[in-house]
Amino acid sequence: MLKFSWNRCRRLVQAGMILIFLLPLTGMYQVLGTLSSSRILGLTLTDPLAFGEVLLASKTITMTFLISALWIAGLYLFLGKAFCSWICPIGFLIEGVDALKRKWPWLTRIQIHKNAIDEQNQYHWALPFFLVLSLVVGIPVFQTLSPIGIIYRAFLFGLGLEVLLILIIIVLELAGYRRGWCRMLCPIGAFYALSARWSPVKVRCDTDKCVQCFQCVKACDYTAASLKNIIEEGKVYAASSLCTRCGRCIDVCPARALQFSLKPEKSPEPESMAVAKNLKADIPAAGRISRRTALQGVGLMALAGLSYKPAKALAAAAPKVFRPPGAVGDEEFLAKCVRCGKCIEICPDKTLLSAHLDQGLNLGTPYFVPRQIPCSLCMECPDVCPSGALVPLDMREVKIGIAEIDQDRCYAYQDDVCRSCYNSCPLIDEAIIMEGFQYPVVDSEICTGCGICEYVCVMEYPAIQIKRMS
């Protein structure tokens, strides 16, 4: 009979989570989005860090967006740092690199740094850094650059130069900085490490069964030092906030002395003191700074963000693109968009595209090219936007741009018969009228900028084009 394995179960969950978010590729839209924000069977769920960044970047909040983040925050207050080993695709990728190194030992020759047990720490600097940076620049910075989002967008919407960040993470692993991204650079890991102190799910040790073989210590990637303390000091459970609840230590224990438990037994010292000591141990001495210094630094950065607002300059520097219907202004859109891709997936005509690195600060945001595929104004995309970057509107209220006719190139103005733009306009005889039954004329007050007229223009270089409002 096959022995139960937490590690095998975890692998299935990791692979299953990736496949679930790829369901839209098969035409199944019960699951939309990515781990930044998703809609599962009609329920919207948002990563608390993504919510925090958008809140700080946009300086606005909606109740539905807050509730969608509280669902996930509550889940991981219970499960601790389980996201990193059970859900995160980067964790799945890194463990795949480990498997390749075991299969092809020659890969270990690349290693230039050797990790020791006391180096398995979580650096928390990335969390305040990305939050304050989002406040200062007015853009959810980590959501734009997140390798988690990049992986999902690559699967769903195609590869871009941004996948180089994934290669950098792999190189870190091969160079010997085991879990280098996860421990040193990832603000999500830092966030869940902080919230994990309240998790009731812990690894418990039956000290009567433990034979002190230290197999668990060798198997652990994050909290080996904490496990070692359990064995050497006879503690009942691992209080480390870095434990990802992967279950590998439980699987390798020959005496079955370790297990997950929801019933905390009395610790040799008060749990609050144990957690405090553990959190302090999680931060290397060389990397510690005083609380006053940290607060002063964060406060100065926050004041700088409130006094100087570069969001407008950054929005102006970003390439100008056509946004989905209902999009707010450029500056506000870049601040509120979570880069989750739900609007792109729900689009029935596949009009919307996901911006790649060549689009600069637009990276991960939705846009479309009228000449390739215009917007049919179905108005489904605003309904799935969690953050208010897209606002539900009536079709006649949409203002993506304004169509302009080059009369020197238009067939109709050269005394030929052509009504392509007029016949295809969804607001026929309103947005485009035929003057004297011959010449198409655009009413700029009514035109929505959907791009259908540009798409159907028979000229190789369209004689009618959509121009942005600003």
Report on this model:
This protein is mostly helical and 470 residues long. The chain has two domains: 1-308, no CATH class; 313-468, no CATH class. Helix content is 42%, strand content 9%. It contains 22 helices and eleven strands. The strands form five sheets. It has a three-stranded antiparallel sheet. Helix 2 (48-58) runs parallel beside helix 6 (126-137) and helix 6 (126-137) crosses helix 11. The radius of gyration is 27 Å and the shape is elongated. The N and C termini lie far apart (68 Å). 42% of the residues are buried. The model is unreliable at 265-289 (pLDDT under 50).
Brief digest:
This is 4Fe-4S ferredoxin-type domain-containing protein. Helices cover 42% and strands 9% of the residues. With 470 residues, it is mainly alpha-helical.
What's the topology here?
Blueprint lengths: L5 H15 L10 E3 L3 E4 L2 E4 L1 H11 L4 H17 L3 H4 L2 H15 L22 H12 L3 H5 L1 H11 L6 H11 L5 H6 L1 H9 L6 E4 L9 H5 L4 H10 L14 H5 L5 E4 L9 H12 L8 H17 L3 H7 L12 H7 L5 H5 L6 E2 L11 E2 L13 H4 L16 E5 L14 H5 L7 E4 L3 E4 L9 H5 L7 E5 L2
Antiparallel strand pairs: 1-2, 2-3, 4-5, 6-7, 8-11, 9-10
Helix pairs in contact: 2-3, 2-6, 5-9, 6-11, 6-16, 17-18
